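Most newcomers find our protein records easier to grasp once they have seen one. Read left to right, the backbone structure tokens trace the chain's path through space. Once this layout is familiar, the rest of the handout is easier to follow. The record below serves as our worked example for the rest of this section:


***
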Amino acid sequence: MTEPNQVPATATNIARAAQILGDGGLVAFPTETVYGLGAHALNAVACRKIFAAKERPAWDPLIVHVTGVEMARSLSRDLPAQFLELARRFWPGPLTLVVKKSPVVPPEVTAGRDTVALRQPRHPVAAALLAAAQLPIAAPSANKFGRPSPTYADHVQADLGSAVDLILDGGSTDIGVESTILDLTQVPPVILRPGGVPREQLGNAAIASPVADEHVIAPGMTLKHYAPRARVELFETEIALRERARQLPQAGILLPQPETLYAQLREFDTHGVPVILALLPPPTGLGLAVRDRLTRAAATGTLPPP
């Protein structure tokens, strides 16, 4: 009988996961945003396993999770002045900072770019895994490429199964949408992806235009992304949504909160709902991130089959 690959996030299992990462394997683990699919960030062969498991295109760069500023320094160069201030304010936490990379970071992680995306997660399981492994962990969301991100270990199991050597089950994630990605190589800094740190907290950062092809420079920026199998229709007002619902009684109705967004999208798919009618929240606070995810989920285009 094979040993199960989904286990509670106990100290013993975290130590086991750290060993797997050191040996070049894949470990899924909870962060405060969503579950990540981790590999040793300086092991190019291990990082290629992430792309294979997720069916992720090689042009989509990965975020590297670190233990703190000192590990971040070892992976970067020419750090701008804002880096230390932002790390002091928001790390550990859901802010990813894009900086110039060190030569030690393999091109598989950065999609051949000269920049690397770094973040220090605050989730206790993620922090314990980084401390036990003592290595940087490249980790996109632990789901098939383009699908709703996982906020429970069961979501990882459903999407990736035995492609992951170990899934650390730490319960539901807290925030439910991915980290904010802030590009510090531009002046002023540019938000590439809205997320767990609201725009209002970042001062003079700007919002970049969405990019949707091989030129994407940050994870989650493809136009069609975070998508369920159902068609998604978006509404600015609940009145308009309810009127449409009367025309489509078979549709699912989504009044999203960040912490339940992806779980709700997955639940509709589980029940075979053909159309999801979603109310867009105001573009403030975490509502900006939810709007971004729903807009991409509703975009036309194709994704790999489930």
Summary: DSSP finds ten helices and 14 strands in the chain. The two ends are 28 Å apart (CA to CA). Confidence is low (pLDDT under 50) at residues 209-216, 302-306. The longest strand covers residues 35-40.
